[in-house]
Amino acid sequence: NDLYTQVSLVFFFFKQKTAYEISACLVGSEMCIRDRSTWGSFLFKRNTYIPTSRIMSLSYTLDNVNPETTAEHLVNEYVYKHSKVTTENGKFKILPQSQKYTFKTDVRVPKLGILLVGLGGNNGTTFIGGITANKYQISWNTKKGTQYPNYYGSITQCSTTKVGVMDDQEVYLPLREVLPIVDPNDVIVSGWDISNEDLATSMARAEVFDYDLQQKLVPYMKDIVPMPAIYYEEFIALNQKDRADNILPGNNKADHLETIRNDIRQFKEKNSLDKVVIMWTANTERFCVITPGVHDTAENVLSAIERSEKEISPSTVYAVASILEGCSFINGSPQNTIVPGVEELARREGVYVVGDDFKTGQTKIKTSLIDFLVGAGIRPKSIVSYNHLGNNDGKNLSSESQFKSKEMSKKSCVDDILNSNKTLYRSAANIDHQIVIKYVPSAGDTKKAMDEYISEIFMGGQHTLTLYNVCEDSLLAAPLILDLILLTELLERIEFKKEDQDSYSKFDTVLSILGYLMKAPKIKEGHPMVNALSRQKLAIENLFKACAGIPTEDNLLLEFRTN
User: Fold this and answer.
1) Is-catalytic flag, 447?
2) Structural element, H or E, at residue 415
3) Predicted pLDDT at 12
4) Of 111, 359, 406, 545, which one is the catalytic site residue?
5) Catalytic residue among 268, 410, 519, 522
6) Of 357, 393, 451, 483, which residue is the catalytic one?
7) Which of 284, 336, 313 is nearest to 520 (CA)?
8) CA 104 to CA 502: how far, in whole Å?
9) What is the pLDDT averaged over residues 32-43?
10) I need a surface site. Which of 81, 88, 494, 519 has the fewest CB within 10 A?
11) What confidence tens digit (pLDDT) does each residue in 231-272 have?
12) Is 357 a known active-site residue?
């Protein structure tokens, strides 16, 4: 009661099972559902610091809570409306469908650990430094004045979704207020890296943060040293060899697998964690050559690791280790880590996998812009994308085989958008789409991207759109890394059943719903690919609403347009 009186912090509570009310959004360290107060609610309780950036004053009440809802599970029904299409006499026949789902969300937020492969890289140090600054509210000075930490760029922390209309005003809530999400300030982070530099030294080398912030972060980061990592030099550029002074000995991939599994177990036990999520944010590897008998089934992948098969990549070993330890695995680089056998293994073990390649700047704009052009009835004919950067990612990509991995993920991101419009493209869309990436050391972590879009318009006219985009690569990637991990963890707590089913199920092993955050979203074979940015974001928002019992938004605004 004192906590509620002093800072008005109640995240979730239920009143007599007739209303579901959120009065704030402060999810805390060691967060749990422990205390039932005199006002008949249950409280997510913060035991330590209270960063002001996390205190919210928004609230809402949703009547008619499902009677199955408890202090541990939020239960809501959702009617999914869609259409099936067949052909009849040469015409499409549209068959409206309606299916009732019941979503059950475990509202007990776990103590979460994160293991990053590539902990000492630009992304890793920026991620940990950003969380540390937010956790301890570290401000710093620049020539523009005093700066304060935030989570800008994170959809879980800083984006909103419409929940309804009040009088003549639309009402929005942050996504983090709709469902209980782990507080990023409370995660425990460690990981592996081929370099043995402590994170304070790695942060200085990365040159991402302002100097004053770096100095204030040094006490928190100087004692963090990555665990030794797997290094098979044929999979990453040779120019990375001079950094490889913190690697697991030998070439026995089965031994490496067991070492990584043991690292995961010890990390979880040492920090008394409920869950661990593992992410590859290390250098881009070359594509492994998919080989029958090696990559095609779960058993073949495991056997290939036992015999140290040459075409088993480091990232695949990490993925297998994660899956065998029951930890979700996220591939933040473009290589084909999640080969068919790894996907089969994850499905067998009931573990989620997410891929491939963080979608931060140029590709995010591209999937949004092409969706706009095609949606406007304009016919794109060519896309030429050039960018240069000077961080270690750029250095690694200067090698041809690693560049080819990146080129593949960047090129494929608009195919489904173009092919959705058979008026503009009567046969399969085949536009000129070129990708150029150059390593320019002086550019540092600041990526410069130039894009030219040429489209055909009315009566044979031509439209040219040219963009110049300057982005801080790791400062865009770090919030995205956060979202991928927090959303993956949340999805682990969501179950569903259809109205004709008695038991609840989990989502498919491949979490394609997180495609908004990936350049080349990994999907289950036979499922439709969605790259349009607006559709990807809306899917995430609608899932949140379906689980929370909030109606999804169709933007018709009929209450106004039919008045």
Assistant:
1) yes
2) helix 415-419
3) 37
4) 406
5) 519
6) 357
7) 336
8) 13
9) 25
10) 88
11) 999 998 778 888 899 999 999 999 999 999 999 999 999 999
12) yes
